[in-house]
Task: structure prediction
Amino acid sequence: MMSDWDDRYPALLREHLPELPEGAALEPDTDLAAAGFDSVQLISLVMALEAEYGVTFADEYFSGETFATAGAVWQAVRELRSEKEKKSLPRPR
Result:
């Protein structure tokens, strides 16, 4: 399964997956819980993603589904970045 994430994302995510074996492939369907992702890692990852990508995770993104796989987290980041870009576009007069 191919991913469309940028070069920064896998390295950032790996820092929050303590049980992901070194050198193991990080795929969109990688199960984050199986890789050691827990509630402490969740807070840390959200803070890192917000700092790296200039987004803010709204409450509705805090679900098991959003943080189930590497691909699901990236999808949330993409949606948040897209929303941010739409808000920053100049409004027609």
Summary: Residues 31-82 form one domain. The longest helix spans residues 70-88. The mean pLDDT is 91. The radius of gyration is 14 Å.
